């Protein structure tokens, strides 16, 4: 192992720009830590997506779809049209191994590590900047990043009053309505309030894959002087989506690409006679943050944050011919059961960050966070179909509770020495995670066993940057660990292990006549929890420890303005070579087959995006963006029938702005998949492949009126 690590210490990464013009839409003097902007200058692989880019394309689709053309990113959608349950992978790594933050506060679910974008719909409309870090990156608060992180900064304080109304309509009866408004500074410039309300509805590309999404955001500022600022941010989301996470087999896809088996009701010969109309996922989540930002002097700044995330919801389903005794009902009969399975959780804590910029030759960063999670899991019987068994609606048939406490702290330093910068970073994380039955909620019918784990991880990182005129080159190394999820533990409570990653990155960046970056990476894993290709009964991917494995590759990006800045050419390219080094396949009969070196599932070798922006006149922008993803296996044992075909997509966007005195009317047309490609970018494997087809050619038109 040490030899392999040493041989790969020459590999690394560069900071890549998103190849879109950088333009801030809001005038603000908000007191902020350097956060996003500072990370983009450290020796890590990062890519910043601006407010303008997000808003131009933000016609209702979720953030993973808006980020799909970023470097090494592959995005997918259960419903096929980018609204509802969506996800993204970076370097082939599932988003459950990525770290997501809002203004430095962790967003990942504490138990699944998942990022459920559907729970905060239209969050792009509240984003000032989004920074994607690939690889280990730098330390932050929350779970460790094993493939990347998404750091979202919400809208900064806007000093001038504004308001805009937005409406959009498109394929699959998709609609979006939105209102954004702000008071500007008032009361001697000490107070400021911004708000947003959004509603998104779609039928989905897949049958019955509908989504009804509502979200609201509030930012309230109080600034008693130019060195102190208090802010309250509240982000609310409510979603109801028809389940579309089951996928379809190959023959069904040939016959009917939009088929959705969810909610099917069968006769005695297993012929579908109807579909249950409320086979839905329902969830409400609210993020409440309070910030105290302080500028102590020209060098030192700090931010103290208190946060509370409240989530509660359920998915409802029709279970046919269910054994009633499994539901704690006094009967050995079978009947059709309508059940709900609930999540009822609280996540709260405090985060403190301190930084010193230009302290002699040093930039210093410190942070600490203490977070606690309470997760309730229980199920209820809502109705019995054609049964005489007596029961009360809402009858609970299992109940357990999880508690997770995490303390993390980090210190970073960047030392400037002539043309060199030396970077060091160390993080310590301690986690206590246990789960047990509650209120006598033991039910062997549910796949749950009590557990109690404690971990302490030390995660060091280091790098060196050499700066040249309009260019820089750097090398970095990072070590990080990550605890298993609830699903990982329940699948193998006695043997599951935390995973360890050594990440080496080498990069070069220039912003001379051509904006160009290249980076090489090598990520060596011990006990990596990789996707098996299977999913559980609620569509979550199943993972397993695989011993030694690695991910390696090269990533490039470029952008260039030509023809008197009327045309912007841009693109990125990623080549990924990733392997399990000693993969062992556990067969259904309990035997183990040594497969040796195999390709890691869901890791295409080539992911590339390229296109151009054209500005015929000042008010008009035309954008064409292409995306190519090569073939990829959906299993780690390289099943011949588990290979997804490559695909090439092209999207078109036109935006024109009319100006009326002080008012603006912006019209947008977005056409996705303009060549009507029939493609699949996600699947799972259960005795054969099950696919998630994506939409062919589809469009959205939108209008935004600002005043």
TrEMBL record:
The keyword Nucleotide-binding belongs to this UniProt entry's keyword annotation: no
Annotated localization: Cell outer membrane
Family classification: Belongs to the TonB-dependent receptor family.
PROSITE patterns: TONB_DEPENDENT_REC_2 (PS01156), TONB_DEPENDENT_REC_3 (PS52016)
Alphabetical list of Gene3D superfamilies matching this protein: TonB-dependent receptor, beta-barrel domain (2.40.170.20), TonB-dependent receptor, plug domain (2.170.130.10)
Membrane disposition: Multi-pass membrane protein
Keywords assigned by UniProt, alphabetized: Cell outer membrane, Ion transport, Iron, Iron transport, Membrane, Receptor, Signal, TonB box, Transmembrane, Transmembrane beta strand, Transport
MF term (GO), any: siderophore uptake transmembrane transporter activity
InterPro entries: Beta-barrel_TonB_sf, Plug_dom, Plug_dom_sf, TonB-dep_rcpt-like, TonB_rcpt_CS
UniProt keyword Transmembrane present: yes
GO cellular component: cell outer membrane
The TonB-dependent receptor plug domain, residue ranges: 41-148
Signal peptide: 1-19
Name of the protein this chain belongs to: TonB-dependent receptor
């Amino acid at each position: 192992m040490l030899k392999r690590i040493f041989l790969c210490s020459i590999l690394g990464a560069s900071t890549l720009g998103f190849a879109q013009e950088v333009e801030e839409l809001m005038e603000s003097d908000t007191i902020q830590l350097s956060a996003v902007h500072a990370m983009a200058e450290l020796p890590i692989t990062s890519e910043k997506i601006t407010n303008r880019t997000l808003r131009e394309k933000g016609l209702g689709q979720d953030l993973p779809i808006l980020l799909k053309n970023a470097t090494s990113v592959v995005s997918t959608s259960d419903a096929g049209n980018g609204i509802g349950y969506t996800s993204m992978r970076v370097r082939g790594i599932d988003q459950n191994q990525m770290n997501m933050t809002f203004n430095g506060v962790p967003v990942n679910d504490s138990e699944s590590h998942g990022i459920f974008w559907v729970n905060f719909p239209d969050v792009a409309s509240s984003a000032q900047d989004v920074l994607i870090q690939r690889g280990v990156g730098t330390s932050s608060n929350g779970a460790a990043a094993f493939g990347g992180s998404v750091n979202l900064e919400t809208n900064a304080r806007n000093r001038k009053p504004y308001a805009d109304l937005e409406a959009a309509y498109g394929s699959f009866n998709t609609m979006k309505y939105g209102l954004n408004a702000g008071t500007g500074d008032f009361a001697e410039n000490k107070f400021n309030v911004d708000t947003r309300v959004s509603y998104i509805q779609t039928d989905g590309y897949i049958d019955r894959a509908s989504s009804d999404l509502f979200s609201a955001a509030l930012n309230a500022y109080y600034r008693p002087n130019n060195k102190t600022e208090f802010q309250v941010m509240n982000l609310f989301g409510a979603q109801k989506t028809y389940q579309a996470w089951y996928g379809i087999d190959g023959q069904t896809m040939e016959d009917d690409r939009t088929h959705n088996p969810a909610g099917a009701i069968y006769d005695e010969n297993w012929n579908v006679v109807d579909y249950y109309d409320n086979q839905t996922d329902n969830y409400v989540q609210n993020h409440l943050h309070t910030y105290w930002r302080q500028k102590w002097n020209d060098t030192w700044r700090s931010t103290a944050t208190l946060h509370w995330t409240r989530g509660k919801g359920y998915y409802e389903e029709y279970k046919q011919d269910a054994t009633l005794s499994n539901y704690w009902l006094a009967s050995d009969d079978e009947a059709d059961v309508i059940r709900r399975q609930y999540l009822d959780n609280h996540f709260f804590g405090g985060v403190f960050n301190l930084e010193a910029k230009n302290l002699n030759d040093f930039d210093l960063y410190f942070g600490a966070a203490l977070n606690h999670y309470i997760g309730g899991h229980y199920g209820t019987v809502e109705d019995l179909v054609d049964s005489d068994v007596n029961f009360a609606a809402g009858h609970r048939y299992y109940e357990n509770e999880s508690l997770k406490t995490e303390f993390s702290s980090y210190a970073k330093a960047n030392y400037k020495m002539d043309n060199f910068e030396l970077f060091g970073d160390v993080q310590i994380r301690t986690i206590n995670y246990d789960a047990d039955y509650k209120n006598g909620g033991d039910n062997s019918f549910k796949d749950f066993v009590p557990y109690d784990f404690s971990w302490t991880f030390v995660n060091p990182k280091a790098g060196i940057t050499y700066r040249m005129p309009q260019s820089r080159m750097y090398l970095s190394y990072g070590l990080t660990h990550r605890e298993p999820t609830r699903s990982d533990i329940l699948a193998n409570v006695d043997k599951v292990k935390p995973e360890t990653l050594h990440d080496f990155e080498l990069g070069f960046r220039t912003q001379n006549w051509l904006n160009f970056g290249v980076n090489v990476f090598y990520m060596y894993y011990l006990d990596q929890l990789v996707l098996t290709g299977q999913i559980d009964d609620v569509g979550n991917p199943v993972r397993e420890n695989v011993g030694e494995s690695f991910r390696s590759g090269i990533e490039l990006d470029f952008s260039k303005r030509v023809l008197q800045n009327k045309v912007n050419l841009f693109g990125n390219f990623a080549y990924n070579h990733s392997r399990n080094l000693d993969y062992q396949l556990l067969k259904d009969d309990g035997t183990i087959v040594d497969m040796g070196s195999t390709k890691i599932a869901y890791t295409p070798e080539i992911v590339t995006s390229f296109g151009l922006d054209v500005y015929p006149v000042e008010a008009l922008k035309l954008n064409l963006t292409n995306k190519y993803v090569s073939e990829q296996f959906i299993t780690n044992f390289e099943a011949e029938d588990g290979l997804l075909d490559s695909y090439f997509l092209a999207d078109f966007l036109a935006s024109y702005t009319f100006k009326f005195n002080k008012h603006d009317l912006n019209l947008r047309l977005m056409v996705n998949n303009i060549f009507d490609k029939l493609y699949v970018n996600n699947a799972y494997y259960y005795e054969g492949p099950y696919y998630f087809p994506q939409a062919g050619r589809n469009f959205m038109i939108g209008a935004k009126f600002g005043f």
